[in-house]
From TrEMBL:
<feature type="domain" description="NAD-dependent epimerase/dehydratase">
    <location>
        <begin position="10"/>
        <end position="230"/>
    </location>
</feature>
<dbReference type="InterPro" id="IPR036291">
    <property type="entry name" value="NAD(P)-bd_dom_sf"/>
</dbReference>
<comment type="similarity">
    <text>Belongs to the NAD(P)-dependent epimerase/dehydratase family.</text>
</comment>
<protein>
    <submittedName>
        <fullName>Nucleoside-diphosphate-sugar epimerase</fullName>
    </submittedName>
</protein>
<comment type="pathway">
    <text>Bacterial outer membrane biogenesis; LPS O-antigen biosynthesis.</text>
</comment>
<dbReference type="Pfam" id="PF01370">
    <property type="entry name" value="Epimerase"/>
</dbReference>
<dbReference type="InterPro" id="IPR001509">
    <property type="entry name" value="Epimerase_deHydtase"/>
</dbReference>
């Protein structure tokens, strides 16, 4: 556990989400004074964690929280994490992802004592060959990153850009994301209907993602670096579906090819060399192990 964070104030937006919960737990264990931001009040079970409620799309909320916390470090996880390509959701996803980052970065630039700002982007939502992101969430991440680059240039904001691949694992998550969707339907004895399943993705277990974020907080000399983080292994959605179906044999089933595939999505596999060199980090959780841990979490959640 890194000792550099002991006594430091760390602000984590999206602190009650799938990545935020284990990250806050890890930071508290490291001796940091951890402040999490969530849109709605929730019961916090982690001793030593302080929760601030507010919608960061409102710049006055961001200003108030920064004035109260005056953080040494910021980890920006807040976003409308939904990969939908539907028009009726596009505006809300785009603004719900972009505005929290813009408001947070603006306040961070005012705080001259801030040591580091960790921006969580998205490797799998990066532009394809035509330089266009395949969904509103991805284009919002692009826009937020562009604003950060400008603020870093003009106002000397010390930023590290982390771009995780598809993060999965135990913890609160949108039930429509592919892995929670598959598991919840199979556990309930239902039919999970997916597209061709041919899309190849790099799947990153949540605790490995947390390890990378902690490394980015404490590693010297990496300001301005943009680092892709993933396992470096491409596995198709169909392979994931078949593994889960076999793991939960006798429950529901997966119907492959039942719906149309998403548009304009390219295979995404991380080159892990930059993370090894810059962070001294490498994913350690094998996909099969991570999926079993995720199944165990959802089995317990759905039994409540």
């Amino acid at each position: 556990m890194p000792t550099q964070l002991s006594g430091s104030r760390v602000l984590v937006t999206g602190g009650t989400g799938m990545i935020g919960v284990p990250l806050c737990r890890r930071l508290v264990a490291a001796g940091a004074d951890v402040h999490a931001v969530a849109r709605r009040a929730r019961k916090v079970s982690e001793p030593g964690l302080r929760l601030h409620c507010g919608d960061l799309t409102d710049d006055t909320i961001a200003r108030r929280i920064f004035a109260e916390v005056r953080p040494d470090y910021v980890v920006d996880l807040a976003a409308a994490v939904e990969g939908s390509q539907k028009l009726d959701k596009a505006r809300d996803i785009f603004l719900g992802t972009l505005l929290p980052s813009v408001n947070l970065v603006t306040e961070a630039c005012r705080l001259t004592t801030l040591r580091r700002f960790i921006h969580i982007g998205s490797f799998i939502m990066r532009p394809g060959p035509d330089n266009v992101a395949p969904c509103p969430y991805g284009s919002a991440k692009q826009a937020a990153e562009a604003y950060l680059h400008t603020c870093s240039l003009l106002y000397e904001l010390r930023v590290v850009y982390l771009n995780p691949s598809y993060v999965y694992g135990p913890g609160p998550s949108d039930p429509n994301r592919i892995i929670p969707y598959l598991i919840s339907h199979l556990l309930a004895g239902k039919v999970a209907r997916i597209g061709s399943g041919s899309r190849i993705t790099d799947w990153l277990y949540v605790e490995d993602c947390v390890d990378a974020i902690v490394a980015a907080l404490v590693r010297d000399g990496i300001e301005g670096a943009s680092i892709d983080i993933g396992q470096g292994r491409g596995v198709s959605v169909a392979e994931i579906a078949r593994f889960l179906e076999a793991e939960l044999e006798g429950s529901g089933r997966v119907e492959i090819g039942a719906i149309d595939d998403r548009v304009a999505e390219e295979p995404r596999i991380v080159d892990t060399n930059a993370a090894i060199e810059s962070l001294g980090w490498q994913a350690s959780t094998q996909l099969e192990e991570g999926l079993r841990l995720t199944v165990a979490y959802w089995r317990e959640e759905l039994a409540r």
